[in-house]
């Protein structure tokens, strides 16, 4: 390991905490930033501070909001309040919103169940979800979680605890992506594609 000054080592450690960023990539980031003009570095630092100072969690769905109070989705009078789409993280909200196909509300769990990583149901916003289902008189809960082992485990858990509330629980259809080739699809994807097949009208 190269013997960098403490200021650089601390920054390397900070950058390395970002997902997908190892020590070498962190070093490249830092040495690139060091080449910036001083005003660019100050702007970068200011933007980070602004991120912390002006982003709030919506008290209703736990999506990020630019203001204290409800986010733009929860405060909109044009949303279907009886439909809740459950996602893992706030950036999933942005992806679904970009489709323009969903008009209900969201609930951000804050992750998915992953016991080996210490993430148990009590670490997620499950209790808040149950409270919202009752409060909103929800008629449908859409589980929009990632289709991996942890996501599937979380889906099973949520289905079981939502069942007594007599609410319709649905799952995003999973299958072949547009432009994908069947020969390269894995068995799970093909199975989901077959199960989610629709009649051509």
TrEMBL record:
SUPFAM superfamilies: Recombination protein RecR (SSF111304). GO terms for molecular function: DNA binding; zinc ion binding. Keywords: DNA damage, DNA recombination, DNA repair, Metal-binding, Zinc, Zinc-finger. Pfam families: RecR_C, RecR_HhH, Toprim_4. Residues 82-177 form the Toprim domain. The keyword DNA repair applies. The keyword Cell membrane does not apply. One of its GO terms (biological process) is DNA repair. It comes from the Bacteria. May play a role in DNA repair. It seems to be involved in an RecBC-independent recombinational process of DNA repair. It may act with RecF and RecO. Belongs to the RecR family. This is Recombination protein RecR.
């Amino acid at each position: 390991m190269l013997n960098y000054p403490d200021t650089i080592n601390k920054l390397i450690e900070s950058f390395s905490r970002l997902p997908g960023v190892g020590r070498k990539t962190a070093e490249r980031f830092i040495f690139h930033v060091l080449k910036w003009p001083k005003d660019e570095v100050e702007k970068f630092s200011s933007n980070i501070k602004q991120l912390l100072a002006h982003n709030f969690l919506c008290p209703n769905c736990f999506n990020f909001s630019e203001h204290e109070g409800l986010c733009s989705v929860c405060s909109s009078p044009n949303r279907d309040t009886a439909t809740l789409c459950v996602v893992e993280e706030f950036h999933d909200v942005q992806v679904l919103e970009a489709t323009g196909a969903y008009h209900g509300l969201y609930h951000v769990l804050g992750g998915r169940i992953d016991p080996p990583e210490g993430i148990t149901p009590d670490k997620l916003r499950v209790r808040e979800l149950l409270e919202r289902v009752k409060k909103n008189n929800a008629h449908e809960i859409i589980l929009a979680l990632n289709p991996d082992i942890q996501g599937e485990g979380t889906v099973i858990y949520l289905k079981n605890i939502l069942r007594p509330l007599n609410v319709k629980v649905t799952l995003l259809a999973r299958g072949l992506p547009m432009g994908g080739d069947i020969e390269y699809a894995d068995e799970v994807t093909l199975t989901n594609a077959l199960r989610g097949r629709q009649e051509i009208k």
